UniProtKB/TrEMBL annotation:
Protein name: Putative metal-dependent hydrolase
Origin species: Dyadobacter luticola
InterPro entries hit by this protein: DinB-like, DinB/YfiT-like
Any Pfam family hit: DinB_2
Transmembrane segments: none
Record-linked NCBIfam families: PRK13291.1
GO MF term list: hydrolase activity
Domain DinB-like: from-to ranges: 35-167
The organism's place on the tree of life at top rank: Bacteria
Keywords noted in UniProt: Hydrolase
Amino acid sequence: MDIEQLKYPIGKFVSQEHYTPAEVKSNIQIISALPSKFINLLGNWENDRLDTPYRPDGWTIRQLVHHVADSHINAYTRCRLALTEDNPVIKPYEEHLWAELPDAKTAQIELSIQLLRYVHLRWVLLLNSMDETDLARTYIHPATGRTFRLDEVIANYAWHSEHHYQHAFQLAKRNNWE
C-alpha cells in the first residue's frame, strides 16, 4: 500500500459549494456514530496495539484518538462561535504539537473516547437543531483567511471522523486484529 493511501484511506476532503438537507443529515449521522465505532473497534486493544503507528512516520492509534477528541472539541466550539457571532475569526491550534504533548502519548484512550461521546452528544444536538439560515453562518480560519460555512464544516468533520476511523480500521485489517 502506498503512503498516500495510508495517509488518506478515503481520499482527501472535497468541498462542495452547496449541501442538500439530506447530505447535511447524513454527515451529522456520520459524526454521531464515531464514538461508538471507535469503542467497537478499539475497546479491547492493549497498549501494544494502541501504541502502533497507523502508517510509517504517523501517529500512534493512541495519539490519533486523542487528536480526534481535541479536533472535535475545537469544531464544536467553532460551530457555537459561528452561531452566536457574526463571521468570527476562530482560534487555530497546532494539532501536530498537541499530538506530541505527554497526555496525547500516554493517556488511556478511554478518556478521549468519553470526551468524544459527550461532546458528540452536545454537538449533534446542536447540529440537528440548525436550519438553513444557521447552516449558512460562517467563520474565518486565520491560517488560510478562508471563510467556512457551517454546512461545509459539518461535511468536513464527517469526512474527518471517517478518515481517522479508517486509519485505525485499516491498521487492524492489515495486522489481522479484527
